[in-house]
Give the backbone structure.
Amino acid sequence: MAALDWTLLLTVNWPEIGEATVDTLTMLGVSMLFTVLLGLPLGVLLYVSAPGQLRARPRLYAVLSFLVNVLRSLPFVILLIVLMPFTLLVVGTSIGVAGAIVPLVVGAAPFFARLVENVLREVDHGVIEASQSMGARLSHIVFKVLLPEALPGLIGAATVTAVALVGYTAMSGVIGGGGLGDLAVRYGYQRFQTEVMVVTVVLLLALVQGVQSAGDRLVRRCCYD
């Protein structure tokens, strides 16, 4: 493989790189917002309905767990293609930034929900039993006990999900999803512009590092407050 001529970086279309970066950040921010809005309640429902938990509903848990496992097991590239008709119905397009957000949320929300369920299982049962002994309702236990006690773990779960979403946004470029992944596919891969590939990879790595560092900082703040 020929070595990269670093002077070629001067020929990179930096305004287009900047626009692709903004598109990636938009996809990450919007999809992460909806992932949390959908995945957090789903994770709580998985936890409370599991056998032996607060409101055990074995059949409901089995159905939800099955759906979560199915969506988590599908490779994201396949999910992008399978959801094209649904994405078109929801947002009117299956390409670009808007077309990528729907499959991003569908792919990440079940992943986050399972992480939320596992985090809630780590909460000390003694605290929950104390709340139950005082006659606390389920909503009080969830919002006043479970979620506050699990907050550092939930932030960690959100950080892991956000990092995974960065990778998903890059993969969405395969179907013209926009952002840095799309740029890497169209220019770095299809047109053999190695310098574009290098720039997009570096920016994606920087984004992952930034997300992870921010998440770790928030976790430390919650632990020491």
Notes: The domain at 11-224 is CATH 1.10.3720.10 (MetI-like fold). The chain has one domain: 11-224. Residues 14-49 form the longest helix (36 residues).
